[in-house]
Amino acid sequence: MPRYIEVDAESLSKLHAGLTLLEQVDSDAMRTLDLFLYGLTNNPEIVDAAKEAIADDAEVDESDVQLTEVAVAIPMGSDIIYYLDGSGLILRREDFAYMGSGGEGIRQMSLAFSHYKPRVTLKYFSKLALASSDAWLDDFLRKEGSGQAATVKQNVHRTEEATQPGVPEQQAAPPAPAAPQAPAQQQIPKQTSLRTLASLLDEFLD
Known about the structure:
Layout: E1 4-7, H1 9-25, H2 27-31, E2 36-41, H3 44-58, E3 65-66, E4 70-75, H4 78-84, E5 89-90, E6 95-99, E7 106-110, E8 119-120, E9 127-131, H5 137-144, E10 151-152, H6 194-205
Antiparallel strand pairs: 1-9, 2-4, 2-9, 3-10, 4-6, 5-8, 6-7
């Protein structure tokens, strides 16, 4: 059984009619149906919302996130198809997947972290698929996407405390001068008194 099947706008229109009939028969059963529409897109409105969510998670500015493509998982129902095929559906808490960089692989997040809520239609998506769960969104992006990875500029963590503008850095206090050492006591050689020397000379000359 495939994880998802590719669909287009025409097949979704037919599905809308079928879901409408099923909901009339048993609306409770249809509400428990775990059915999702996958959409691959590089639409700026959806990408910008995804960038804002990524920036919020990484605690960086949105301008530090470079992203070109995402895949979105939209819970399905007859009303969802109606809006997507008409005036548009506002994405609020839907999950999206994007290709991470640096060996991260595919990452999945929620648009709930984005303050911007784009209104989208089926025309916003380049590829569509129908799945029985949102668990295969990463597989859909891996197989159908361009593979172009996003880049997120990380914050620079300072190892030294930054000084305020105009305030010079504190210089280390100069070392205290060493205490003067007492001069070493000079040993004064013993001297023979002049009197003793004179007496010795007198004895030598006698």
